[in-house]
Amino acid sequence: MPVLARIRERFAVERPLEDIRIAASLHVTPETAVLVRTLIAGGARVALCASNPLSTQDDVAAALVAHDGAEVHARRGEDMETYYRHLATVAEIGPHVTLDDGADVAALIAERPDLLEAIVGGTEDTATGVLRLRAMQAEGRLGYPVVAVNDAQVTRLFDARYGTGQSALDGVVRATNVLLAGRVVVVFGYGRVGRGIAMRARGAGAIVVVCEVDPVRAVEARMDGYEVMPAGEAAARGDVLITATGGRDVVAAEQIERLRDGAILANAGHFDVEIDLPALRAAATGPPRRVRPAVDQYELPDGRRVNLLAEGRVVNLGAAEGHPPAVMDVAAASQALSVEHLVQDRGELAPGVHDVPAAIDAALASLTLASLGIAIDGLTPDQEAYLHSWEQGT
Ligand code: ADE
After folding, report:
1. What was the pLDDT predicted at 16?
2. Is 323 in the pocket of ligand 1 (CB under 6 A)?
3. Positions of E strands within 52-172
4. In this structure, which of 69, 150, 349, 358 has its CB flanked by the most CB atoms within 10 Å?
5. What is the pLDDT of residues 298-344, one digit of tens each?
6. 202 CA to middle of ligand 1, Å?
7. How far is the CA of 304 from the centre of ligand 1 (A)?
8. Is 78 in the pocket of ligand 1 (CB under 6 A)?
9. What are the E-state strand segments in 151-199?
10. Is 328 in the pocket of ligand 1 (CB under 6 A)?
C-alpha cells in the first residue's frame, strides 16, 4: 500500500495525531491494519472493533494487539450481542475521532451525548453509512462533523467499481467454485457497485441481467449492453443473483418462489437485509445445510435448492478478503488524511456530513498515479487561458 506508506513516513516524523484517541469500527483486515499502524505512527491511540461480525481476520486482530499496541475487540463470527458489546467497549476510549464503516460508532454516540464533548470529528467509509449519517443529521442527531471518505472522487472510483466489482465475484467464486462463463448473473442495483459487478461478470463470460428501480440507471444498464428486467422475471433466469442496492428485501418471497434449482444468492451491499432472510427461512422445508464453508443450502418444498452465501452478509468480506490492498490503499489514505484534517482544523467544521476537501482528493489522485509510475500532462498557459475565455467562437 504505497500511498499509505508515504503518509506513514510523514506521520512518523510530524506526529500530527499526538495523543488523539480514535474509536474505529472497520473490517478487521490486513488493509485496515496498515491504516491503524499509520494512525499510531502519527501519535494516535486506536481502539478497533469490527464493522461486520463475519469480516474479521483473527490473526490480523491479534497481530495489531501484539505488535502495534492497538486495542482490538473483534472476533470472526461473533454473535450480535458480542458485536455490540465490542462496539461499546471501543467507545469507552472517549474518542476524539471516530472511524466508521457503516456508521455504527456514530449511531452509538448519538445515544451517548456524554462522549460528544471530546469529539473533533469522524470519517465514514461506506455509502450505506453516509446515508445513515444523513438520516441522523436530518433528525438533528449527528452532533459532530463526519467526513464522507467514500464520496471522495478517487475513492468512489476505486472502491465501488474496481474494489467491489472484483471482490464480490471473488467471494462468489471462492465460496462455490462456480464457472461464471455462460451462466446468467443477475445484478440487483446499477449504482457504482452494481456497475462494477456487472462489468466484471461480463468480462468473465457471464450473461448479465440488471434489475434497477431508477429509470435513468435502467436506461444506462441497457445502453451498456445488459438485459434489463423486473426482479421477479430475473429471479427465474439467474444462476447467480447478487444484490447491490443499499436497500432491503430486494430478493423477497416473490423472487424466492421463482428461483431455479441450484441458484446462488449473494449480497454485496453493506447490511444483510437485501436478501429477505426471514422469507427464505419461511420458504424452506427446514434449517439450511452448510455444504461448503460460506454456503448454506436451503431446500424448498418442491425439492429446489437455494445456496445462500456468507449468511446474506457482504459477500466480498464474508467469503473473500474484501477489496485488494491496491484499492484499500486509496480509501485508507483518504481516511488518514481526513483524520489529520479534522484534527488540524478542529472546531472549524460544523456538525454534519462533509465532503473530503478537494485538495485531499487531488493529492490522493496524484499519489495514486505516482504509485503506479504514471506521469500525465498539464495544461499549457494558453490552453488554461482558452478554457476560461469566451471571445473565440466558431
Ligand atoms: N472494505 C472492503 N474491503 C475491505 C478491506 N479489504 N479492508 C477493509 N475494509 C474493506
Report:
1. 98
2. yes
3. 71-73, 97-100, 121-124, 145-148
4. 150
5. 999 999 999 999 999 999 999 999 999 999 998 999 999 999 999 99
6. 24
7. 34
8. no
9. 184-188
10. yes
CA distance 155 to 127: 11
pLDDT tens per residue, range 219-255: 999 999 999 999 999 999 999 999 999 999 999 999 9
389 Cα: distance to centroid of ligand 1 (angstroms):
44
**Which pTM value belongs to this model?**
0.90
- Helix H or strand E encompassing 228: strand 227-228
197: its cell numbers: 459487478
Angle 112-137-147 from CA coordinates, rounded to 5°: 90
Sole residue written with cell 462522549: 115
Q: pLDDT tens digits, residue range 35-49?
A: 999 999 999 999 999
Q: Is 126 in the pocket of ligand 1 (CB under 6 A)?
A: no
What pLDDT was estimated at residue 262?
98
pLDDT at residue 371 is higher than 90? no
Instruction: Ligand 1, residue 29: give the atom nearest the CA.
Output: 7
Report whether residue 8 contacts ligand 1, using a CB cutoff of 6 Å.
no
Of 368 and 138, the structure prediction assigns the larger pLDDT to: 138
Distance from the alpha carbon of residue 323 to the mean position of ligand 1, in angstroms: 5
Q: Are 124 and 355 in contact (CB under 8 A)?
A: no
31 lines ligand 1 (CB under 6 A): yes
Find out whether 74 and 2 touch, Cβ atoms under 8 Å: no
Rounded CA separation 190/253 (Å):
22
What lies within 8 Å, CB to CB, of 243 at 6+ separation is 188, 189, 250, 251, 266, 267, 268, 269, 274, 275
